Amino acid sequence: MSSPVAHTLLGYACVRRPAASNGLRGLGLLVATLLLANAPDLDFVPGLFEGHARAYHRGWTHSLAATVLAGVAGGAVLRRWLGSFRTGFMVALLLYGSHVVLDTLTPDTRDEAGVPLFWPSTVHVYWPLPGLASMRLALELSVGDSPGHFFRDLLGVAALRVFALEALIFGPLAGIALLLDRRS
Questions:
Q1: Closest to 100 (Cα-Cα) out of 76, 122, 77, 127
Q2: Which backbone phi and psi does 110 adopt, to 5 degrees?
Q3: Axis-axis angle for helices 64-82, 26-38 (nearest 10)
Q4: 79-105: b (≥16 Cβ within 10 Å) or e
Q5: pLDDT digits (tens, 9 = 90+) for 29-62
Q6: Least confident of 35-44, 64-73, 150-159
Q7: Residue closest to 154 by CA, chosen among 37, 20, 16, 38
């Protein structure tokens, strides 16, 4: 399971150029990226209230339907900064969709691998990347099911190792996107 670090860096890499060239920069771009690139994992919240954090994880929020819905909602909000619904829709779609795509590529050893991409079908789509799949044990962010264990694990030493490895893997992508945008 990827962490918010990987989702944020990949999302940023995907939208830096189109967002910045249409006026969404700085803090606004950072906030949009943090929110939309990590929004699919809001499915942890209902499970936390029930005492089983993963009860709904990698469910319908990790589907193409949810991605389009996030694109529409994000487009409506982001058009204020990006000048048009269409541009806002594309930026939101890319941010949310980057999360869903990354979760199709990375294993989740505690639950079924992949995501229900074609929800309401319950078939999970999983296209493991050889490099990421072989690093599974190093990159697996394992969080407990109870709220106390969930937050302890998310903020623990093992999680910090995962965050650092993800920063090494996905940070260069975000850096390249930033450099390419600044050069043009």
A1: 127
A2: -90, -20
A3: 170
A4: bebbeeeebbbbbbbbbbbbbbbbbbb
A5: 999 999 999 999 999 999 999 999 888 988 999 9
A6: 150-159
A7: 38
